[in-house]
Amino acid sequence: MKKFLLLIILLSTASAVHAANISGMVTDSRVIDSSTNTPIGNARVTLPKYNYSTYTDSDGNFDLKGFDGKTILSVEKEGYRPFSLTVDQLSASKPLVLGIEKSAPADIVIESSMMHLGDDNYSNASANAGNFRLKSAGPFFSKKFIMKSTALNSKNYLVIGSIVGIDTLLARSMGQNKIVNSYASAPEVYFNGTKIAEIQLNGDNQRIKLPNNLIKPESPNEITIKTGRNLMQMAYVDYDDIEVANLSILSE
Questions:
Q1: Phi and psi (nearest 5°) for 115?
Q2: Cα end-to-end distance, the chain, whole Å
Q3: Coil, strand or helix: which one is 213?
């Protein structure tokens, strides 16, 4: 069997479409350029869980009024790399300053929206199950894209902006879910058919190095993410339900 990377990263005005039954609040926060610290106006800030969005003003300021428990906050701005962060009432009790990076010519956005993988069969004790709002697209996600030959001269990474719902044994031991009697295998990441990583923990900005020897320059390359399975369920296949936001390929 080929070796693979075991990924165990844990990271420590506007219009609202829908914001019912949510109580938290993000106020007096800003989006800035991470290199220059200058404010970024007209950046779209969203809480995908609630289908809620707003835009920063000319000074980069924004308020997001209303969320409950942990949720993914996402920032989009043309010319900048997609950004997301898992927040809760505690982390958002003080104003947030979100630094986003300018995009590079070689950057590839695989998917900027949130995706739900699994079978829509999950416990309320599952990690971040309260966040789930989307219907499952199935147990895996796959996308093809072109990488230029110049990528072979760089270090290339798959960046997962945010991922929630993982119920591995490690996630359970770290207190990321409240499940007592079961756990799931880790989601697996494949690049051009080769397994390159397992994602053991929920978190933000998880980076997976793409082996350059697997890159097909100027030809279709493919990323596949497969969700895990409940290892205590033998009667049928019970897929672990997870949600993922912002997938990108970055070259450095």
A1: -125, 145
A2: 29
A3: helix
Of 186 and 126, which is predicted with more confidence?
186
On the CB side of 23, CA atoms within 13 Å amount to 4
Quick one: which H or E segment has residue 169?
helix 169-173
Tokens 């986003």, located at residue:
100
CATH T-level topology, domain 5-10+105-251: Jelly Rolls (2.60.120)
For the full predicted model, state whether its pTM sits above 0.85: no
Q: Is 30's pLDDT higher than 60?
A: yes
* CA-based nearest residue to 24, from 84, 83, 96: 96
At position 109, the amino acid (one-letter code) is V
pLDDT of 182:
85
Overall CATH class of domain 25-100? mainly beta
What are the sequence ranges of the domains in the chain? 5-10+105-251, 25-100
The residue-averaged pLDDT of 229-235 equals 89
Q: Is the distance from CB of 249 to CB of 208 less than 8 angstroms? A: no
pLDDT in the model for residue 100: 95
Find all residues with CB under 8 Å of 153, minimum gap 6, and list them: none
pLDDT over 90 (residue 112): no
Q: Taking a C-beta distance cutoff of 8 angstroms, is the pair 92, 25 a contact?
A: yes
